[in-house]
Write a structure and sequence with these properties.
The chain is an alpha+beta fold. The chain contains 8 helices and 10 strands. It has helices at about 1-5, 30-40, 120-130, 135-160, 160-180, 195-200, 205-215, 230-240; strands at about 55, 65-70, 70-75, 85-90, 95, 110, 115-120, 185-190, 220-225, 225-230. Strands 1-6-3-4 form a 4-stranded antiparallel beta sheet. It has a 3-stranded antiparallel beta sheet with strand order 5-2-7. Helix 3 (about 120-130) packs across helix 4 (about 135-160), helix 5 crosses helix 8 (about 230-240) and helix 6 (about 195-200) packs across helix 7 (about 205-215). The longest helix is centred in the middle third of the chain and has 27 residues, at about 135-160. The protein is globular, with a radius of gyration of 19 Å.
């Protein structure tokens, strides 16, 4: 057992071609030759432990990161020190784009659990986009998705009721699980309820009360951080996504 602990994780690199998250990440749409070029520049640093920072507000922007395992949250801080969580990043999702504008990060990225990432150095990005048409197309897609996510968060915080916010959050997680070919109706929450409340702009007590309400109405089943969606249609109906025949 002790010999296993001495394995150098830096050398256990998973190639883009072999990665089961490649359809969600940098290599989406690339051919085999392009994937080999990506492998030459993408690095996989040591895993992050829970509460380790991937980067901090004010750090120089060096790379775009893709979560390979675990979950990383991003958060901003106001002038008076109040924290606002702006995203929870699951395997296959990218972060670090906040550093594009000024060359420094404008938020903190913190691991919610033991997590690993792949990093694409920015000093290689421009050249790679010229050499790899697939990467250029994917970068445009990523930028558009970031803007779309920002719009959704503004709608979530500005227009939805507390019940709609939590239902929308659970549906978003369900959809992201489905993208990864994982169970869309049963998953563990990597984030504590305090973080969910912060992200949704609600009090922790309100989040706990709504989880209890959804459970009593048999919409979901809650076992600590394990969530089972029992009635997907009722959850969708709360946010006006009811399917019609």
């Amino acid at each position: 057992m002790s010999s296993l602990k001495r394995i150098d994780v830096d050398h256990l690199k998973v190639s883009c071609k072999e990665c089961n998250l490649r359809e969600l990440c940098f290599p989406h749409g690339m051919n085999e030759a392009e994937l080999l070029n990506m492998d030459a520049v993408v690095d996989q640093p040591k895993p992050l432990h829970k509460n380790d920072f991937l980067y901090r507000d004010g750090d120089s922007s060096r790379a775009i990161y893709a979560v390979r395992s675990g979950c990383v949250k991003t958060m901003t801080e106001s002038a008076n020190g109040d924290e606002q969580i702006v995203g929870f990043h699951l395997p296959g999702e990218l972060l670090g784009l906040d550093g594009f504008a000024e060359g420094v990060h404008t938020c903190n990225a913190l691991a919610l659990e033991t997590s690993s990432v792949c990093e694409l150095p920015l000093n290689q990005l421009e050249n790679l986009c010229h050499v790899l048409p697939g990467l250029q197309k994917q970068m445009r897609h990523i930028m558009g998705k970031e803007v779309n996510n920002d719009h959704k968060l503004l709608l979530l915080l500005g227009k939805m009721t507390a019940e709609e916010r939590l239902a929308s959050f659970l549906l978003s997680l369900s959809s992201r699980m489905e993208e990864r070919h994982w169970k869309d109706n049963e998953f563990n929450l990597s984030m504590p309820r305090q973080d969910i409340a912060n992200y949704l702009g609600m009090a922790v007590e309100t989040v706990s009360r709504l989880f209890a309400t959804f459970q009593s109405e048999k919409i979901i089943d809650v076992d600590r951080r394990h969530i089972t969606i029992l009635d997907m249609q009722r959850l969708k109906a709360i946010v006006g996504e009811c399917e019609t025949d």
